[in-house]
Every structure is written in C-alpha cells, then in structure tokens.
Design goal:
Layout: E1 4-5, E2 28-29, E3 31-33, E4 45-47, E5 72-73, E6 85-87, H1 110-115, E7 122-124, H2 144-151, E8 155-161, H3 178-183, E9 184-191, H4 192-200, E10 210-211, E11 214-219, H5 227-236, H6 238-241, E12 247-250, E13 255-257, H7 261-270, E14 277-279, H8 287-296, H9 302-314
Parallel strand pairs: 6-7, 8-9, 8-12, 9-11
Antiparallel strand pairs: 1-5, 2-4, 3-14, 4-13, 10-11
Helix pairs in contact: 8-9
Length: 339
Amino acid sequence: MPERRLPISTPAAAGPRRHPRRQRRHCRLLVLPAFALALVSLAYLSFSSHPNLPFHDVPCQIEFLPSVDDLVEPGIYNNFTGFSLNYISKENVSSSNGIFEPLFGGHQSLQEREETYYARNQTLHCGFVQGPEDYPNTGFDLDENDKIYMASCRVVVSSCIFGSSDYLRRPTKSKIGLYSKKNVCFVMFLDELTLGTLSSEGTGPDETGFIGLWRIVVVEKLPYKDMRRAGKVPKFLAHRLFPFAMYSIWLDSKLRLNADPMLIVEYFLWRNKAEYAISVHYDRTCVSEEVLQNKRLNKYNHTAIDEQFYFYQSDGLVKFNESGREPVLPSCSYHYLMI
C-alpha cells in the first residue's frame, strides 16, 4: 500500500467543563513499543502531583520530529495479521434455574475466553453486552450526539475521571499543533458526580461541551460500582467506543499530555513499524509487586486479590525475570518492562 497523507477531517462538536491550574512537578515518562494490537495506548506525559516518584524531575530525551508539517502516514506494515471481529451485543437467558443477571461483559466461559486469543475471524464478548428484553441495561450509556462525535474520530486521545477521584488536567496547549487541534479528538469521559463537582467549582464545560481541548462525554449508569474497574472500560475498549479510529492514545487521569499526539504516533508507531506501544510502570516491574502494593493500599479485598493472582499463575504467569528481558527503548524509570 502506498504512503498517504493523513486525511483532514474536523470532528463534530459537543458538551461542557474546566479546572483550576495547580502547581505542577514534571517528569516525562517514555512509552515503549510492544508489537501486539492495532491501537496505541501510550502518551508522552507529565506527572503533575507525584513529588515522591523515584525519577522525579529526570527528563526523558525523545527525538520527536520538529513539527507535524508534511507528516506522511506509512503504507501498511508487513507484520499485520488480517482478520475480522464481530461482537456479541445481546445474550438470552441461559441459566438452568431461570435466574439471569445481565452483565456488561457478558457470560463468557473460560474456554470461550481462551479461543479469543487466536488471530482469526470470530465473534466474541467485548463489553457492551445487553440482556434480553425487559432486563435492566448493563450500563455505560452515552448520549447519541456523543456517539456520533466519537464515530467521526480517526485519531483520538482519551481519558476518564469517575467518582470525582482526580483533578482534570488539560493537555499542554502550546505543545499541540494546529493540525492536531483540528483533526484529533480529545475525549474525557466523566460520570455525573465528577461533572457536578467540576461545575460546582465553576470549572464546568463551556456551551459547546469542551473544557480546553477536552470534549466532555458524560457516562450514565457505570457498569461497575468500583470506580477503578469502571475506568477500565474506556481504557481497554477504545476500539468499541471509537469504532472508526485508526490510532488511539490512552492517557491516565493522573498525567498531562505534553506533546503533539501526531508526533507521538509517528515516533512510537510509524518510525518503528509498531502496532502497539505501552509505557513502563514508574516503579514496579512484576505482577507480584503490584499484588503487594494493592494490599498495602487496601484497594481491594485481600482474599479477592489472592484469588485473582492464583488464577493468573494457573494460567502460566511466572515471576518477572529482569535479566531475561528483551531490549527496549530507554525510560525515565529505573526498570524496563515490555508487556
């Protein structure tokens, strides 16, 4: 496939918000390319409220192009595997005792889960599964106008804040070029609680639905009570929320976008002929360390954490061996981890 220039297609318009600036401490975190899926989950970022991070104020040197002028999208990569996916959108009552609870993720068996790992044409569970008629909605409901806007996106930067759990950090406008401002969608998912908090502080969306570059999309009826779990929906299912996007950048709400998204895509994907890129963790390199940290912070029930960890181990997870890791790009953190 020949090289082609990125199409200029201005996304549609939308709904409200904004946040007061706070004093910031910066450390730019570099992201690593991993050759896996067709979405980008990375960002060139600034930590804005983590003064105790071990690599505080240590800059990463990333040789971005000087501008997006005359940026050309490369032809298709040879390492792509072509296949088609369809998604299960509705399930019927399958319980033998007649008791059926619709679940956002559906009722997938372990065998069905195992089958989804193969790169081939298939229909699978991937969230947004509804139950039969007259059963309650499984959640993550969006306004139709927001859906239309999201369907218009070809390159998207997205993030979320649920449960009023964080500050809204705007991308650094001076680092975002005119092309990206016109052609990249910047979408911030909020629940009504977070929107209400921001509005009460006088930092709600403007009349077009924006807070700075962020287009605010309000999610009604979150599918999970745990806000961390609900936040995984836009993080992992960007390909469902933005069905026509070619590139998707996920930004943790604790981080601030500090570079032009198209320069990020060029550097981490096009330049390296990669399909997927992900940042290293700033402090931990192994799931077992993450297990201990979750227990220290009492993020979840300890028994549930252990059960999940044992399941991962039974599925083949072994302790991370740093000496055997593959070479990766340099990072600000003390450790490297290719996921």
